[in-house]
Amino acid sequence: MDLHYLTAHELGDLLQRREVSAVEVTEAIIDRIEAVDGRVQAYLTRTAEQAFEQAKAIDAARARGEKPGPLAGVPMALKDNLCTEGIRTTCASRMLAGWVPPYDATVVRRLKAAGAVMLGKLNMDEFAMGSSTENSGFFPTRNPWDLERVPGGSSGGSVAAVAAGEACYALGSDTGGSIRQPASFCGVVGMKPTYGRVSRYGLVAFASSLDQIGPITRDVTDCALVLGVIAGHDPSDSTSADLPVPDYRAALRPEIKGLKIGVPREYFGAGMEPEVETVVRRAIARLEEMGAVCEETSLPHTEYALPAYYLVAPAEASSNLARYDGVGYGLRVPGKDIIAMYMNTRSQGFGPEVKRRIMLGTYALSSGYYDAYYLKALKVRTLIRRDFEAAFAKYDLLATPTAPTVAFRLGEKAGDPLAMYLSDLCTIPINMAGLPALSLPCGFSQGLPVGLQLIGKAFDEATLLRVAYAFEQTTEYHRRRPELGVA
Amino acid sequence: MEYEAVIGLEVHVELKTNAKAFCGCTTAFGGEPNTHVCPVCLGLPGVLPVINRQVVEFGLKTALALNCQVAPFCKFDRKNYYYPDLPKNYQISQYDLPLARGGHLKITVDGEERVIGITRVHMEEDAGKLIHVDGPDGGYSLVDYNRTGVPLLEIVSEPDLRSPAEARAYMEKLRAILQYLDVSDCKMEEGSLRCDANVSVRPRGSQAFGTKTEVKNLNSFRSLQRALEYEIERQVAILEGGGRVEQATMAWDENRGVTYVMRTKEEAQDYRYFPDPDLVPLEIDAAWIERVRRELPELPDARCRRLIDDYGLPAYDAGVITSSRDLADYFDRVVALYPDAKTVSNWIMGDFLRLLNAGNLEPRQSPVPPEEMAALLQLQKEGTISGKIAKQVLEEMFATGKGARQVVQEKGLVQISDAAALAQIVEEVLAANPGVVEDYRNGKDKALGFLVGQVMKVTKGKANPGLVNRLLKERL
Ligand SMILES: [Zn+2]
């Protein structure tokens, strides 16, 4: 039995029945990391020692007759923009290469309380800016299905780790598709919950009004389990919603008869690979066979989402990243005066994509251009939100491709930021509207995974998970594993 | 040509809430550097601010006391600029949708009442403090973040002030109101009340505004007045000389007594304000506003009116006494025990304030509690001590913290009201000053005063002055 490729709920069952110990599971996955991470390069920081301690504590609790929750003792890992007390958190930036947070993110606290065993911190595009994980300040992560291809981004390390058996599940962050697009590229389940469903406290901010933490798992049941642990109101985040958290696992039923699903035509536009479109349409047809009512619809402002996003997100980023100035923590490159110190530090600490967005955002917010750019983008954002409101008056959820292509080759788009930005075309509007969405494996094209994106009403993650689960029950795509030359 | 000044003030008030604006850290002044801090007020990566409800409550109180309209919906914005004492390199403030707008407050200068408009009241957070250390390579700087995130209110006036004296009166009135509301310590020396002034001048009678300069960081009433006087003179001199005032941000050099240019218009900051996405907009419902309004304490103007109406105090006295809540409270407590309000007011405005100022004390820190002040006045009224002795006793009470009766007993200051004993002294004084007696008899009334003084001198001021007068007149 390959422990490293079991799902969290499968492992959880074995652990609860005490057929295997948390220490054994942890050992198995650490062995797997040793075996494959040299090629995948998902991890930035490994915390094997702490992981074994956490695993021992869970085993001890079980030995005492305690019944910790279903995720207790299951090894997982975190995108490196989630703060972990005492463990370095770099955002894959040289700016924070040596920074050790003095506190845990709320999601980390909740996972610890649920008995999670943390294996380490995962690679990403620097400060979550990028769609391929090639913008990491340290090294690129590779797609486990084809090591010459990108895993997607910015949560590329998180997704690759889950796909390659290097973590049972992971947390990522999604600002414009950073969980869903790589989940699509690597054939795993990735969810962006509703904005406000999961506390952002301790997530190093990229664009605060768009960022959301979400689970990356091997199947929908795991997604429901993990979301159940991390969701819920947090008094430390005033944008987190004070709403009850449903029992998501209990919401999983293979029954979707009569459900109304809208299929917005704008998400099948130019730039979409025909084979990806075929796979996605086939998946939608399957939902129909299962009893859902699928209907083409329109979200007319979709084409403006990408340009508006590339004003709002950099604007917020320019402000959020102003704190990296060499004064209090992180990198400091000396200079003859304070201004020179700021300039040296920021010039050497940030990579080109981060600098590009800071400049874009600074410009968009500057007086004289604010109305024409930032304010205009906010208005577009409202129009996009209204498009969705209108659609959800008719449909229970929407189905689209997650990304217009399968995983592209390393370096293929690295020199062309605009081409790179297009890979988030299908995911960005959902962040602009703050809605929940998930990507799940729905087939293959050129031997590479293709994702189906399901978009739900605000705070209705349960319906998303139910439909995804129903679909998953009728397919085997989520059980396929990449061949990495090791058993 | 005659010029008039046009002045508007931006006053920053540090609120004395229990916790900082967006985290739970203490707002206490002082403390070892960087001990009153947490990840939130240090702006560490990943942290989020959460507004402290008490900050809004204090802001509401102030806005209502200044007769403002409270916005039912307001939001927080980020004011972006780089400065090493600003941990996030942006300040959370309010820009286009402030907490409140459109109020006013009344001031009286040279007996003339003026109504000064309040443009807006908004909430924001304070920055930290830089400590510069000299060293071989030009030195270095240390940052103390204890003050970062301490809540501030910014109160912006309309350009309705016309002289440095009015500006000072406005600031004093504002401080009194804030003290009555108990929302701030208003200690200018600790920076909990500070102000920037916008100043321009124009030919008297003109309606158009001249080019203004902004004088930053005036942290005492005295520097406010002096800086404005200097800046107005400077601007007038430029105009008189046919020049043009340049729009600029100025600083005040207290030692040299001059303003100097910090930044010109060309170097103006672009703060790139935008709504803070980490903070949800604030909705303030009518019920909240009404509750705060109901709970507002009696404010200086109302209290002044009450002192005039209930005690018959002259307007001047009432104004002085109510200029500080502390002083007015003290007055009320003395009057409750010694109901001759005018006498109490005279004593408080005179010797009491003089002794407080000499000791650099607030009324609440007075070593003479209101009960002992009343006791002193009672002793005087009973004739146990004379008015002159009473002044001496008060000084002794201030110096030692002893009670009025104790001081009088210990120092043997009881008034001599024994006619027989005094008659003896009167005889001696008359015998010793035959010339003066002669003068008096020849119609020089002033001579009586001299003789009374001599008796007082012999009795060390303890003689009952009324009795001395009567005895002298009987004998002359
Ligand atoms: Zn704090």
TrEMBL record, chain A:
Residues 24-465 form the Amidase domain. InterPro entries: Amidase, Amidase_dom, AS_sf, GatA. It catalyses: L-glutamyl-tRNA(Gln) + L-glutamine + ATP + H2O = L-glutaminyl-tRNA(Gln) + L-glutamate + ADP + phosphate + H(+). Gene3D superfamilies: Amidase signature (AS) domain. GO terms for molecular function: ATP binding; glutaminyl-tRNA synthase (glutamine-hydrolyzing) activity; transferase activity. One of its GO terms (biological process) is translation. Keywords: ATP-binding, Ligase, Nucleotide-binding, Protein biosynthesis, Transferase. Its EC number is 6.3.5.7. The active site is at residues 79, 154, 178. GO terms for cellular component: glutamyl-tRNA(Gln) amidotransferase complex. Heterotrimer of A, B and C subunits. Allows the formation of correctly charged Gln-tRNA(Gln) through the transamidation of misacylated Glu-tRNA(Gln) in organisms which lack glutaminyl-tRNA synthetase. The reaction takes place in the presence of glutamine and ATP through an activated gamma-phospho-Glu-tRNA(Gln). Belongs to the amidase family. GatA subfamily. This is Glutamyl-tRNA(Gln) amidotransferase subunit A. It comes from Neomoorella glycerini. The lineage of its organism: Bacteria, Bacillati, Bacillota, Clostridia, Neomoorellales. The gene is gatA.
UniProtKB/TrEMBL annotation, chain B:
Heterotrimer of A, B and C subunits. The lineage of its organism: Bacteria, Bacillati, Bacillota, Clostridia, Neomoorellales. SMART domains: GatB_Yqey. It catalyses: L-aspartyl-tRNA(Asn) + L-glutamine + ATP + H2O = L-asparaginyl-tRNA(Asn) + L-glutamate + ADP + phosphate + 2 H(+); L-glutamyl-tRNA(Gln) + L-glutamine + ATP + H2O = L-glutaminyl-tRNA(Gln) + L-glutamate + ADP + phosphate + H(+). Allows the formation of correctly charged Asn-tRNA(Asn) or Gln-tRNA(Gln) through the transamidation of misacylated Asp-tRNA(Asn) or Glu-tRNA(Gln) in organisms which lack either or both of asparaginyl-tRNA or glutaminyl-tRNA synthetases. The reaction takes place in the presence of glutamine and ATP through an activated phospho-Asp-tRNA(Asn) or phospho-Glu-tRNA(Gln). The gene is gatB. It is an enzyme of class 6 (ligase). One of its GO terms (biological process) is translation. This is Aspartyl/glutamyl-tRNA(Asn/Gln) amidotransferase subunit B. Its EC number is 6.3.5.-. PANTHER family: GLUTAMYL-TRNA GLN AMIDOTRANSFERASE SUBUNIT B MITOCHONDRIAL AND PROKARYOTIC PET112-RELATED, GLUTAMYL-TRNA(GLN) AMIDOTRANSFERASE SUBUNIT B, MITOCHONDRIAL. InterPro entries: Asn/Gln-tRNA_amidoTrfase_suB/E, Asn/Gln-tRNA_Trfase_suB/E_cat, Asn/Gln_amidotransferase, Asn/Gln_tRNA_amidoTrase-B-like, GatB, GatB_C_1, GatB_Yqey_C_2, Gln-tRNA_amidoTrfase_suB_CS. PROSITE patterns: GATB. Belongs to the GatB/GatE family. GatB subfamily.
